[in-house]
Design a protein that fits this description.
Layout: H1 2-29, H2 45-48, E1 59-60, E2 73-75, E3 82-88, E4 98-102, E5 108-112, E6 128-132, E7 139-151, E8 157-162, E9 165-171, E10 181-184, E11 197-201, E12 204-215, H3 228-233, H4 238-241, E13 246-248, E14 259-261, H5 264-279, H6 283-299, H7 308-320, H8 331-348
Antiparallel strand pairs: 1-12, 2-3, 3-6, 4-5, 6-11, 7-10, 7-12, 8-9, 8-11, 13-14
């Protein structure tokens, strides 16, 4: 036991202080995004018509509907997500004015018609479209393509709303009928928050060619950190299972306390055990809990550069000390364990250069 403590103390004292100072410099250089509270109004014509991302068929393109279809619900092309839609026309705002139109080429788009609909309406009128995205699976909108945009008095725009309220809006460019402009909406939503509502306000005439959606489960891999509650909740998700096994320590070997978590059940059982022990003041359990969370976030593609050295030190502690050794450690060693756990916790709290993910 004394040899183990000496090894740990030596490694910790050599590396810990230098890493902390570097991490503080990294934190000072990091700028957090205010996209979620900033209204986006600027329109860059050179960057608007981007290549929409691959969404595995989760796009609504209206080709499956006939011309003149009064759209109250629309489906993605792979029929996995259904979205409620309401069009608003100034003549009778209480009636749904959303209708499918056709280009001369026969391709379909969604626009506004004056209700009640009559046969032979071929030109969209002024109004707006509202999409209810909160009644089905949690989703965010990656892009929207528009056509026939011609504003009358003010700029047309698309606005996104989360459960917390207004997220941001993007101006829609003037686009001739028969042509299509794709608008990247991930710029309004860099953390992939679930969208409750999308308003497309034409402030004139216009139509929508397609809307591409991404279903929210485990987040798309990104450089942000999740909570243990999140991972526990989604531990049966196939994307989580693909992250396993998670190895604690430097590998399962003779005379080592390292272990590997290879199934959702073993992960949940270990988290339960660590929760009980850390609640009872066990600093080694706190260290392992925070280290496990760090490793999960790194497995989900969070940037590891600010924490990898500390995580390596923590792995040595897992190798050398079992949770039951806590009460036998001297005060200095206990303080070192808590210091490492605190640094790991700072990373998991989004304070070491990698922000926290938006919780769903």
């Amino acid at each position: 036991m004394k040899n183990s403590k000496n090894i740990i103390a030596t490694m910790t004292m050599i590396v810990l202080l230098s890493i902390v100072s570097c991490q503080k410099e990294d934190l000072n250089d990091y700028t957090f995004s205010n996209e979620n509270v900033t209204e986006r109004l600027a329109f860059d014509a050179n960057s608007s018509n981007f290549d929409a991302p691959e969404t595995d068929g989760n796009c609504i393109n209206f080709e499956q509907y006939g011309e003149g279809y009064a759209a109250s619900t629309v489906l993605t092309s792979n029929e996995t997500i259904e979205v409620n839609v309401k069009g608003t026309h100034s003549v009778n705002p209480s009636l749904n004015a959303a209708m499918v139109f056709s280009y001369a080429s026969g391709e379909k788009y969604l626009g506004i018609a004056e209700p009640p609909f009559s046969q032979g309406e071929t030109v969209p009128e002024a109004g707006s479209l509202t999409f209810d995205l909160g009644s089905g699976p949690a989703i965010y909108v990656s892009s929207i393509s528009v056509t026939g945009i011609k504003a009358f008095n003010s700029h047309p725009y698309v606005a996104l709303y989360t459960a917390s309220g207004f997220l941001g809006r993007e101006r829609l460019p003037v686009t001739p009928i028969g042509q299509s402009t794709a608008i990247d909406l991930t710029r309004l939503n860099p953390r992939g928050e679930a969208i409750e509502r999308m308003d497309v306000v034409f402030n004139g005439v216009g139509g929508i060619d397609d809307i591409c959606l991404v279903e929210v489960g485990l987040p798309t891999p990104q450089s942000c950190v999740q909570t243990m509650t999140h991972w526990y909740t989604f531990s049966s998700d196939p994307a989580f299972i693909d992250m396993l096994p998670i190895t604690m320590g430097n590998g399962v070997a003779v005379n080592s306390y390292s272990y590997a978590l290879g199934t959702p059940t073993s992960f949940r059982d270990r988290v339960d055990d660590l929760e009980i022990a850390r609640t009872n003041g066990n600093g080694l359990a706190e260290l392992q809990y925070e280290l496990l969370l760090v490793k999960l976030n790194i497995a989900n593609d969070a940037d590891a550069s600010s924490i990898s050295a500390i995580a390596s030190i923590a792995d040595v502690w897992v190798d050398k000390l079992d949770l039951g050794d806590w009460e036998r450690l001297d005060d200095l060693t206990k303080r070192e364990a808590r210091g490492i756990a605190n640094l790991l916790g700072e990373y998991n709290d989004g304070n070491l250069g990698v922000p926290k993910c938006q919780q769903q």
